[in-house]
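User: Please predict the structure of the protein below. I'd like the answer in structure-token form so I can feed it into my own downstream comparison script.

Assistant: Understood. Taking the following sequence of 95 residues as input:
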Amino acid sequence: MTAVFHDLTPGIRRVSVRFGDRWLELPDGMTLAAALLAAGVSTFRRTPASGAPRGPFCMMGACHDCLVLIDGERVQACMTEVRDGLEADPAGGGA
């Protein structure tokens, strides 16, 4: 998968994060939304009605398009920091 966004943090510590069925090495402390975009992940959830793909839009917590499931709870990826061992799943269907 080719990332549309560039990783601007080449020297920062990387940690293991699971998103769906993939384990990724993401920058520690970056928002999950920014880190996933830089890793090439663009679909974070699918809408319940049509299954249309959704991903980050506002990157500041206003739109809720970046919802993911962490520990069974829907959270905004743009408001969640990457940490070692974080396990997240797409919300509203598979990505």
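That's the full token string. The chain has one domain: 14-90.
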